[in-house]
Specification:
Helix content: over 70%
Number of helices: 1
Structural class: mainly alpha
Largest sheet: none
């Protein structure tokens, strides 16, 4: 279960980074 949470958190972080790079 912890691996699933880690993957989800990584996906969220990746989305935030991509969104920030797109906006700038």
């Amino acid at each position: 279960m912890k691996k699933l949470i880690l993957l989800l958190s990584l996906a969220v972080i990746a989305n935030i980074v991509l969104a920030q790079s797109e906006s700038s």
